Amino acid sequence: MDIPERVFQYRYHFAIAITAPLVLSLLLYAAPRLITVLAYFWPLFASTAVFLILVIVFGGVSQLQATGHYHGEKAGEGLLDYVSGQPQSTVD
Q: Per its UniProt entry, which superkingdom is the organism in (predicted)?
């Protein structure tokens, strides 16, 4: 009589152990193949990659221009001064 009590004690564990593989197998059966997903979204992946490459390239180019143009001033300070309406500092 000890076995039915033990089985009843772990009834939720048994239910999860039976349900989880069934749900997983149904999801794997119903899910589309990886190649299908990649074929559908390849324009999105390609445009995102091009955009990130352009951000990296132009970020490096603008950083090089900022060091030569602003003479040590941080690149965003000139824009912030313009937006806030503060007068430009004159170079003596």
A: Eukaryota
